[in-house]
Amino acid sequence: MVGGRRFRPGGGFGRQLDEYETTVGAPPSTESPAAPAGGLVDSAVYIRGHRFASPSGLAETYRCLQEQDGAMAWIGLYRPDIEQITSLAREFRLHDLAVEDAINAHQRPKLERYGETLFVVLRAARYDDLREEVEFSELHLFIGPGFVVTVRHGEAPDLAAVRRRLETEAHMLARGPEAVLYAILDQVVDGYAPVVAGLENDIDEIETEVFGGDPNASRRIYGLSREVIQFQRAARPLLTVLDALADGAGSGSEDEELRRYLRDVTDHLTQVVERVDGFRHLLQNILTVNATLVSQQQNEEMRSLTAASYAQNEELKKVSSWAAILFAPTLIGTVYGMNFVHMPELNWRFGYLFALLLMLVVCGTLYLIFKRRGWL
User: Fold this and answer.
1) b vs e for 341-360, b when ≥16 Cβ sit within 10 Å of the residue's Cβ?
2) Sheet with 50-53, side-by-side order of all strands
3) How far out from the chain centre does Cα 144 lie?
């Protein structure tokens, strides 16, 4: 891969990749988020690790590569169109399947070899502090003899920082396209650290909300669980990519220095994956605890409602009992108060006392009955 290049003249695809790299890997001024929706971001030709030329377009980059033996081109594109991708495919003989993946995006991290060209898909992540969300973006790399093409479909990673760092370390950049690949892998993995910190902080906040009885905690737990799963899908497959590179299946490089560099990246990624796996289990436990606390709260509310209902029933019994007791003399008095000409005991001397006594007996009997039943 570090050896001589094999190109053909031509090339709209190369120009599109150049525009993409300009967005991804150029200095901050040329790689700002305000860059065009698609196009060449930065294109450079390196000889023995030093920038030899900064072509303004793909055609110029192709000419420079043809004129300089042992040169390496690093072309960066940001959301290129089909015409640009096609130009690069013709110039560097990129495989149709890899080109199709680069155009469609939405690929999982993977590594595939097509002849002398290596096609790598990476998923970078960035934590948005304002929205407290994780943003994912896709990065495609074509690595071949004497060229590196990066196609970025999002704001991350910061390839401009990778380019600047490598340009200050000419001995690393002189190792060829593989050095660029490993530096980009390192940047992507390093970008996972702030995401892990942000997710960990969110989990701490959720724990406080759960034990504080926040009713919106379940919704936030569910949303954060989805982000953790997406993060796992971005980071875990990258371990397979790194293992393939370490085994030589991807690049076949025998550069021990680059292998040590790759092992260090693998170690960092392994730590990230293990922490993210722990986040997922922790969120499942928090969701279970939250469901238990919500159930307990609902039970307490039901007990309170039951107690209140019982108290109301007791009061209703008392009111009903006294209403029945008072209704009895009212009924008797009403009957005796009616104007009948012929009525039993109407002219009886003790009829009034009998009516009062009857009222007292009925009321007393009802009182004893209600008292025995516990209504009074």
Assistant:
1) eeeeeeeeeeeeeebeeebe
2) 50-53, 39-47, 71-78, 147-152, 133-144, 117-128, 110-114
3) 34
φ/ψ (deg, to 5) at 250:
-90, -50
- Cα–Cα dist 64/22, whole Å: 17
Name, of 84-93, 185-194, 201-210, the range with top average pLDDT. 185-194
Q: Which residues on neighbouring strands pair with residue 59, listed in sequence order?
A: none
DSSP 265-326: HHHHHHHHHHHHHHHHHHHHHHHHHHHHHHHHHHHHHHHHHHHHHHHHHHHHHHHHHHHHHH
Those residues with Cβ within 8 angstroms of residue 77's Cβ, 6 or more apart along the chain or in another chain:
16, 17, 18, 19, 20, 21, 22, 23, 24, 38, 39, 40, 41, 84, 149, 150, 151, 152
Side-chain-side CA neighbours of 239 within 13 Å: the count stands at 12
> What residues contact residue 90 under an 8 Å CB cut-off, 6+ apart?
8, 10, 11, 12, 13
The radius of gyration computed from the CA coordinates of the chain, to the nearest angstrom, equals: 41
Indicate the average pLDDT of the chain.
Answer: 77
Contact criterion met (CB below 8 Å) for 71 and 146: yes
Q: In degrees to the nearest 10, what's the CA dihedral of 11, 105, 107, 219?
A: 160
Helices (H) and strands (E) in the chain, counts: 10, 7
DSSP letters, 45-105, are EEETTEEEE--SSHHHHHHHHHHSTTEEEEEEEES--HHHHHHHHHHHT--HHHHHHHHH-
- 0.70 cut: is pTM over it? no
Are residues 265 and 185 in contact, defined by beta-carbon separation less than 8 angstroms?
yes
